[in-house]
């Protein structure tokens, strides 16, 4: 049985990855950490929690000395829209934080999981579909840190024999925790607002097509990649994974199949619109399918039905 540490555990991904890891390895063996204190009733609460700023290497090292860790899932990051507003913070957290994790992990011989993103692509990337290996010239600071992070992981694997693996997550849709300041956040907010007010004003234009994924698929992909036979992995890091692509108007139409009175309005945020337009419409995930058997389970219709069912009757989080 493994001991694992999760950074950024209170975020949108960590809130669902921590319970999944605890189900797999035992609650007491999964150390959830975040720079924030945990909120009462948070699902990541049921087990060990430590405050950790990933830019503090000494604090991270101290945790590796306290727990016999086998793996680190490094989720702490500043996401796209927030990174444009706070570029220095984003550089420090996304780059120094990652470097710290890779350094302590190589010394302790831990396995490492590092998520990348569709933000690692840019305007000159082929957008439909975006190949696994292609041009990566992003024009956002978040994207720059994601490409640099992918390269750093690729460097650490052969140079230090570090077993570091990663996925390029599409926009993630989930109901447990609110999203943390990304460009695809609309696809989560729309569900909360549809149920509470019967309408939503979207900050992206109606025809902005982006790759999306329902969180249960993203969590399963993470666990499957980390368990995959290393001999079959030609890439290891930064695998494209795809489930479905949609535009805001297509998502609204899908919600209207369940809630016919739902109304969608648009007030475009130029910053997030420009970011979205530089990203892929669809990802080619054939490398993930061939190398470790990736298959999504949720499409737009089944994700929408499940989100509405799970959220019905729940309180709307303040951030939505
Ligand atoms: P999030 O913003 O919801 O959560 C990030 C967490 O990191 C927060 O809880 C925050 O408190 C914590 N954090 C921030 N600075 C920290 C620091 N210095 N030290 C420790 N913790 C710190 O993000 P998320 O959606 O859970 O994303 C997790 C990972 O997945 C990130 O690497 C992100 O780039 C990637 N990703 C997410 C999406 C998405 O749609 N959510 C898409 C693509 C990639």
Outline:
The protein has 320 residues and is an alpha/beta fold.
CATH superfamily of the largest domain: NAD(P)-binding Rossmann-like Domain
Strand content: 5-15%
CATH domain topology of the largest domain: Rossmann fold
- Helices and strands, in order, run as EHEEHEHHEEHEEEHEEHEEHEHHH
Helicity level: 40-55%
Catalogue the ligands: nicotinamide-adenine-dinucleotide
Please, how many helices? 11
Amino- and carboxy-terminal Cα gap = 38 Å
What's the overall geometry? Answer: globular
Largest sheet composition:
6 strands, parallel
Q: Which spans of ≥5 residues are poorly predicted at pLDDT below 50?
A: 315-320
Name the average pLDDT: 94
The number of distinct structural domains comes to 2
Radius of gyration: 19 Å
Write the layout of secondary structure elements.
Blueprint: E1 4-7, H1 14-25, E2 30-34, E3 49-51, H2 57-66, E4 71-74, H3 80-85, H4 87-108, E5 111-113, E6 116-117, H5 141-160, E7 164-165, E8 167-169, E9 171-173, H6 186-197, E10 199-202, E11 210-214, H7 215-227, E12 239-240, E13 244-246, H8 248-258, E14 263-266, H9 270-277, H10 286-292, H11 300-311
Helix pairs in contact: 1-7, 2-4, 4-5, 6-8, 8-11
Bound molecules: nicotinamide-adenine-dinucleotide.
């Amino acid at each position: 049985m493994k001991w694992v540490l999760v950074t950024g555990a209170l975020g949108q991904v960590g809130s669902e990855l921590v319970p999944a890891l605890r189900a797999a390895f035992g609650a007491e063996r999964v150390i959830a950490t975040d720079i924030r204190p945990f909120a009462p009733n948070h699902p990541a609460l049921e087990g060990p929690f430590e405050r950790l700023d990933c830019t503090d290497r000494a604090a991270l090292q101290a945790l590796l000395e306290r727990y016999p860790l086998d793996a680190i899932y490094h989720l702490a990051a500043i996401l796209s829209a927030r990174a444009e507003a706070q570029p220095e913070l984003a550089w420090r957290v996304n780059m120094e934080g990652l470097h710290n994790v890779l350094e302590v992990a190589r010394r302790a011989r831990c396995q490492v999981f590092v998520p990348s993103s569709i933000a690692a692509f840019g305007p000159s990337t082929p957008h439909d579909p975006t190949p696994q290996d292609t041009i990566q010239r992003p024009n956002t600071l978040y994207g720059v840190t994601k490409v640099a992070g992918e390269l750093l992981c690729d460097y650490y694997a052969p140079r230090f024999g570090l077993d570091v693996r990663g996925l390029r997550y599409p926009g993630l849709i989930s109901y447990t925790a609110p999203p943390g300041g990304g460009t695809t956040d609309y696809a989560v907010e729309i569900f909360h607002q549809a149920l509470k007010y019967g309408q939503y004003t979207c900050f992206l234009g109606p025809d902005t097509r982006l790759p999306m994924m329902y969180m249960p698929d993203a969590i399963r992909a993470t666990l499957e990649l980390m368990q995959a036979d290393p001999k079959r992995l030609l890439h290891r890091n930064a695998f494209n994974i795809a489930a479905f692509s949609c535009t805001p108007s297509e998502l609204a139409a899908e919600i209207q199949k369940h809630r016919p009175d739902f109304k969608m309005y648009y007030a475009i945020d130029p910053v997030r619109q420009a970011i979205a337009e530089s990203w892929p419409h669809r990802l080619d995930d054939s490398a993930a399918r061939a190398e470790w058997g990736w298959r999504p389970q949720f499409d737009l219709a089944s994700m929408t039905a499940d989100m509405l069912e799970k959220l019905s009757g729940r309180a709307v989080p303040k951030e939505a």
